[in-house]
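Hi V.,

You were right to ask for the full record rather than a summary. Here it is.
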Amino acid sequence: MDLMERIMELTDQGYCCAQILAILLLETVGEEDPGFVRAMGGLQYGVGYSYGCCGCMTGGAAILSYKIGLGYDADAPDSQEYDKELHKEVLQEFTQWFEQEMKAGFGGTDCSTIIQGSMARCIEVCPGIIASTYEKCMEILEEKELL
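Predicted structure:
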């Protein structure tokens, strides 16, 4: 199954953009974390249905942080050493890319701007945004040797 087919399958199951990003990451790294997927649901439709900052922007930052951010138990045997500067660099690279892409393609990064108040437009444009966001996040993680 290709990426767009998987995104559409997850969309049909009721997952929002940020949750889809989380599921795709977890599938890629061979992990399960239902709590992470549930928590990402709070980012839908511009954070809690506010139609503010796109859930792919916040979700992308979250999946990057899932791999590189400071964990709850930094002393656990499987935890990596936290590198605050690398974390910041990764997030800035992603958010700059996202802002540039969304402003060029849709005029801004807010959910309301991207979908122009239309759920039909959401169905039309959001799967492509999810796919490009996921691909960019994976590219960054691979470049930094974090996958």
